[in-house]
Amino acid sequence: MRSAAARKKSALATATVTAATALLALAAPLLASAPASAASVSTWDKVAQCEASGNWQIVDPSGQYFGGLQISMPTWRAYGGTQYAARADLATKQQQILIGEKILAGQGQGAWPNCGPKYNLGADHADPYPSGPSYPAPSSLANGTLVKSPNGPDVRVMIAGAGVPVAGSDVTPDHYDLGKVVLIDNNAFNGLASAPPAGTVVHDQAGGANRYVIIDGAALPISGSDWTEDGYNIRSDYGVPSAWLQAAAQRTVSTGRVVMDQTGNDPSRYVIVNGAALHISAAEWTANGYSQQALMGVPTDWLASAAAKQMPNGSIVKEVSGADSTVYVMAGGVAVPLTNADFTGFGYDKRALLGTPGEWLASAAAKAAPANGTMLLSPNSSTVWEIVNGKKRAMAGSEFGPGKRSFDDVVSVGNAFTAKFPTV
Q1: pLDDT above 70 for 225
Q2: In Å, how far are 196, 387, 410 from 214, measured between CA atoms?
Q3: Cβ distance 114 to 208 under 8 Å?
Q4: I need a surface site. Which of 31, 69, 299, 341 has the fewest CB within 10 A?
Q5: Burial of 154 (0-12, 13-18, 19+ CB in 10 A)
Q6: Is a pLDDT exceeding 80 seen at residue 202?
Q7: DSSP string of 166-204?
Q8: Angle (nearest 5°) at CA 299 between 239 and 232
Q9: C-alpha span between 124 and 118 (Å, rounded)
């Protein structure tokens, strides 16, 4: 190991870099291809033996030099070492040598004034790792670790095995340190799931009391009462990027997902279809194959809200078992039957056909009238009708436009359906 006087002469001790180079956006030059100068692993081992008695995880007593090559913090940062670890001694031997290669190319063997020339470091031009650098497996990284591919600027944070995207706007409020980004293999990075596994409890990394449970990439809010009663308080709770969480809170659970009350106190089962939770009767639970699907517990209050939610207007549905071949369009909570001509004439054949429990569909088809405010249009008329307390009101063209009603919300239905409502 070098003397203090020798260390002071080392260029490693004097290389400096501004904090900005730690930012990922400015780190691209540090991730360039391997330098022209190189040395074999055996030569680097000799240098490490000279510098640090061959200990690749050593910290100099002065606290200024780290790892087998005794690299100072400014130099480690300047040559891109933080892509691997915060300090040289925390990186692997291979990673330290890869950064040593860059230092050798930039400063020459004089960067190690005693040990470099002693072992002719500058004269050994062998590539230490011709197959390229090795990267840690994502599964080996702790939750909260920032990762990126060497081939692009995008950064993710590891949460329960997933790589959740980090937006630029998240860095400051979420207190992410881009100087600690870890490089992982490009294919491994691209293969990371972008959302934590179903059932993961999360909160905004920037702070706040709100908690959510992830189901199919959607963040479902956990109410204060559900937090304890549903048992979410005993699960691990992970901070996730603010921008991602805001988007996830707007997503809906996948259609076809079978759910139940997380407490287990309610025996009812539901299937999510287009954002609404539809009740599954006991007879249909097995007959329609729902019992063969994964059953996911969801927050009690969220489930009550989803079960009360009206299926979005314009959703095209039919009974999941196929026993009834009738196709319906949802209009204000009513399942309106469609003829073959209407199904194709209205362009509904271009929309997804959603399977629903038979008993739920029968109940929706039996409703007397759509909810107030539902807008209907039939092929025998150019008039758009609004449903008001079980009757229909002809709407004027002036009621549509920016800041007013939208024609996109009008549901096309057969003539027979609009004809049965008296006119206001």
Answers
A1: yes
A2: 7, 37, 33
A3: no
A4: 341
A5: middle
A6: yes
A7: E-GGGTTTTT--GGG-EE--HHHHHTS-SSPPTT-EEEE
A8: 50
A9: 12
Token pair recorded at residue 214: 């992830």
Q: How many helices (H) and strands (E) does the chain have?
A: 14, 22
Buried b (16+ CB within 10 A) or exposed e, 262-288: beeeeeebbbbbbbbbbebeeebeeeb
Listed residue (210, 285, 297) closest to 253, CA to CA: 297
CA 229 to chain centre: 27
Residues 214 and 299 sit within 8 Å (Cβ to Cβ): no
Would you kindly state where each structural domain of the chain is located, as residue ranges? 4-123, 138-248, 252-309, 310-424
Residues paired with residue 71 on neighbouring β-strands, in sequence order:
66
Give the tokens for residue 324. Answer: 């009834």
In 3D space, the residue among 255, 416, 421 whose CA is nearest the CA of residue 338 turns out to be 416
pLDDT at 376: 97
Flag whether pLDDT at 29 surpasses 50. Answer: no
From the list 102, 64, 76, the residue with the least C-alpha distance to 22 is 76
Element (DSSP H or E) covering residue 108? none
For domain 4-123, give the fold.
Answer: Lysozyme (1.10.530)
Quick check: 258 and 271 in contact, CB under 8 A? yes
How far is residue 96's CA from residue 76's CA, in Å, rounded to a whole number? 9
Integer Cα distance of 113 and 107 in angstroms: 11
What the block records as the tokens of 80 is 């891109």
Q: What is the CA radius of gyration of the chain?
A: 32
3-state secondary structure labels for all residues of 47-73 = HHHHHHCCCCCCECCCCCEECCCCEEH
Q: Tell me: the pLDDT tens digits for 274-290?
A: 999 999 999 999 999 99
